[in-house]
Amino acid sequence: MTRDFSRRDFLKIAGYSLAGLLGYNFLNSETAEASIPNNSLISTPSQLVRFGPLAGRRLGDLYPLYLGLSQERNNSGVLIPEQARVNYARQLQRMWAIKERRSKRNPVVRQLGDDVVNSFARRQTRIGLEDYIDEAQNSVNEVRTNINWNSVRELYRLNDRQLRTLQNVSNIIGGNGVLAYALTELMPSSDGDLNVLVMDHLLRTAGREYVENIPALSDRFFSFGPFQFTSYALNARDSTAGATRMNTALPRSHQIPGSVSMLRGNDHFSAAYLFMLHNSAELINNLSDRQISRLGNVRERRDNFLAYLAAAHHAPALARRDARQWIDGNPNAPIANYADGRIHRYINKTLANLRALRRY
Fold first, then answer.
1. pLDDT by residue (tens digit) across 131-155?
2. Alpha-carbon span 353 to 195, nearest angstrom
3. Cβ atoms < 10 Å from Cβ of 210
4. CB neighbours (10 Å) of residue 179?
5. What is the phi/psi pair of residue 329, to 5°?
6. Which long-range contacts (CB under 8 A, 24 or more apart) does 235-239 make?
7. Which pLDDT score, from 0 to 100, does residue 167 have?
8. How much is the pTM?
9. 47: enclosing H helix or E strand
10. Residues 140 and 173: beta-carbon distance below 8 Å
């Protein structure tokens, strides 16, 4: 897992990441500066961007902000032009300024935002969605090849049958499933076709580094990237935290960094896959032999299980509850039939994203 990341950057980000983990509450300061930093390294010029199939649509919420056509979340909607000049570095900077305000002026968030924006200004890798899915698949394959299943058995206290079921689940998760999960986290609506178009547009015009450094704008946590991970998903100081726990089943040479702030490039995909395996293990660990028999061939229930995993990122306990109800009720039926409220919304959104990715 290679990273375009200097030792100086590593030490700096590791330092403020640790500060964020240890001192989030006392770092929240109403007196911290809130303006967009005036950083001399942000020197990338604006570029003429053609919006292709997005042109002529009126889009609101986070879409205009992501596309560089609005400085704030826009609920009234923006008519997407045929073309416009966009400075993606400045736009990423604006989003991190919003994140800073949401975090109550946390200087740790400000420092991370400053650093990732300047890193983006130095490098943009433009890539199509198809190639991005291939990168996700490669990351999944690397983790799957190197994971120690005996270690997984011990970490999650699985019996033989539970472990075999988890291994079967690991084989149904691929590049499309990982990207559908990312679209569910990053995009504001359940319009899968629109989400796919916006993601492809951003990858091709702004570059993957733009997508991988978008901050989560609806929470106050230390979270960013295509999966909007927080320390609940990845935290070197908490061995039970999601992907961190499953990460220990990999050889050290193949482990991802222990902090969200240090994820770069394909690390995001590896972290997502590890977190999906973790949430699978947490469910399977609590299934009886009868329930595992009812679940049957997980390959036949792939989309339902992938939708459960995306929902488990959002609210793991509620998602596990609804998944057990689905298994006890009718595992041949849509899992959405057994989900309520926000879990139902997450499941339907993920299924829409999966369908759109397959059509693309």
1. 999 999 999 999 999 999 999 999 9
2. 7
3. 23
4. 26
5. -80, -75
6. 235/21, 235/259, 235/260, 237/21
7. 97
8. 0.87
9. strand 47-50
10. yes
Segment 54-75, tens digit of pLDDT: 999 999 999 999 999 988 887 8
Q: Evaluate whether 235 touches 101 at the Cβ level (below 8 Å).
A: no
The first and second tokens of residue 312, run together, are: 């488990």
Q: Which of 61-65, 118-122, 249-253, 282-286 has the lowest mean pLDDT?
A: 118-122
Which residues, 6 or more positions from 208, have their beta carbon under 8 angstroms from its beta carbon? 125, 126, 127, 132, 265
CA distance 82 to 158: 55
Total length of the chain:
360
For residues 63 and 194, give the distance between their C-alpha atoms in angstroms, rounded to a whole number. 10
What crossing angle do the helices spanning 341-359 and 316-329 adopt, rounded to 10°? 80
Reported as half-sphere exposure (CB side, CA atoms, 13 A), residue 323 has a value of: 32
User: Which of 317, 310, 328 has its CA nearest to residue 180?
Assistant: 310
What local confidence, expressed as pLDDT, does residue 235 receive? 74
What are phi and psi for residue 144, nearest 5 degrees?
-60, -35
Helical spans, DSSP H, in the chain: 7-27, 63-67, 88-102, 107-122, 129-146, 149-156, 160-172, 175-186, 192-205, 208-211, 242-247, 267-284, 289-295, 302-314, 316-329, 341-359
Q: What is the mean pLDDT of residues 226-246?
A: 81
Nearest-angstrom CA–CA distance, 64 and 75: 10
| Number of other residues whose CB lies within 10 A of the CB of residue 112 | 25
Phi, psi dihedrals of residue 310, rounded to the nearest 5°: -65, -40
How many CA atoms does the CB half-sphere of 118 hold within 13 Å?
A: 14
Give the separation between CA 113 and CA 99, rounded to whole angstroms.
9
